[in-house]
Automatic annotation (TrEMBL):
PROSITE patterns: LYSM. This is LysM peptidoglycan-binding domain-containing protein. It comes from Methylococcus geothermalis. Pfam families: LysM. Residues 31-79 form the LysM domain. Keywords: Signal. InterPro entries: Bact_Kbp, LysM, LysM_dom_sf. The keyword Signal applies. Residues 1-20 form the signal peptide.
Length: 341
């Protein structure tokens, strides 16, 4: 009887480490964690879970909170078991009667889902041009005083503009085509950010002033409307509801080998079911090796795809998405496979 009880107790602890429904806790997970100022939701999820994509399945969205998905530095998170399932929630003090007081606290921003500094430049600037729109966009036709290029403070002439005086526009340069990793279909074009320009005289052509420039503008650069606000950096990490599979088709730092915290481009977008906060696994493509034991000409074996790391989608477009590599156990390359965890 004692032996049966001991076995049952052991099984209970095993189940507590790996939930029957597939939630695997980090073997070194804390029971209670104080959120640090430099944490991200990915960091916090990794402390508790083997797979941060399962964060939305264990995070308790307290309806009493204004935004239950936001976590702030100084918050205390606790791991509890409810009906045999792990649940991570915000530790709250017991309710006690208090006299009305005025409380002044410093303004603290919630922790981001992923490192904000790594993606900030990609949140507000348009970076993907639709293949059908490139030729229809307004463009720089020339510069005053016969200049062939210009930086901040230079004037420019543009054709095709309908915007009024003082309107701010973004200047971009169409880059390489983004192509489907399997079919080679053109999904869009990279839009290299040049700077911002303000309309001084509306007309045909219009005269503008380059008020900001990261690189020199040239004839043929295109003009786009400025996006009205910065996109959110705080959201829940979660796996796609439906299976998603695609490939890495670009990297925005101009390198061939991809590592942690690099921004990559995927050949899947909102029309394929991707959304902000989706976590995908990255796999090295299957390879073939010769079977010298079996012998014979052309006797080869296909190796299974190797898991290389994980990514988080932070800016999906219609047909492509920007994602940040959050974990890398080996070098990754353009053409590697991405799919639901």
């Amino acid at each position: 009887m004692i032996a049966k009880f001991a076995v049952g107790l052991a099984l209970l602890f095993v189940c507590a480490g790996t939930w029957a429904a597939g939630i695997a806790l980090n073997p070194d997970h804390p029971e209670r964690y104080l959120v640090a100022p430099n944490d991200t939701i990915w960091d916090v999820a990794s402390r508790f879970l083997k797979n941060p994509a399962q964060w939305s399945e264990v995070w308790y969205r307290n309806p009493a909170l204004g935004n239950p998905d936001q976590i702030y530095p100084g918050d205390v998170l606790v791991l509890r078991w409810v009906a045999g399932r792990p649940r991570i929630e915000l530790e709250t003090a017991a309710a006690v009667p208090l006299n009305p007081v005025i409380r002044v606290t410093p303004l603290v921003r919630e922790i981001p889902a992923i490192p904000a500094d790594a993606i900030r430049a990609f949140l507000t600037r348009p970076r993907v041009l639709d293949s059908s729109d490139v030729d229809a966009l307004p463009y720089i036709v020339g510069f005053p005083d016969e200049h062939i290029s210009g930086g901040a403070g230079y004037g420019i002439y543009a054709r095709g503009l309908k915007e009024a005086k003082d309107t701010i526009l973004t200047v971009v340069r169409p880059g390489p085509a983004y192509r489907d990793g399997a079919t080679e279909e053109v999904l869009g074009y990279e839009a290299l950010y040049i700077g911002d320009a303000q309309v001084r005289i509306a007309g045909e052509p219009s005269e503008l002033l380059l008020v900001r420039a990261e690189r020199e503008a040239v004839i043929g650069d295109r003009l786009l409307a400025v996006e009205p606000h910065e996109l959110a950096t705080s959201y829940t990490l979660h796996a796609p509801e439906k299976p998603v599979a695609g490939r890495i088709i670009g990297v925005l730092d101009g390198v061939t080998q991809i590592g942690q915290y690099q921004v990559i481009v995927l050949d899947r977008g909102t029309r394929d079911g991707l959304e902000v906060g989706h976590v995908l696994d990255i796999h090295r493509e299957a390879d073939t090796i010769k079977d010298y034991v079996a012998g014979g000409f052309g006797n080869v074996v296909e190796t299974p795809p190797e898991w290389s790391g994980s990514l988080v989608v932070f800016r999906p477009f219609d047909r492509v998405s920007y994602a940040l590599v959050m974990k890398a156990v080996r070098a990754m390359h353009i053409g590697d496979i991405v799919r639901s965890p």
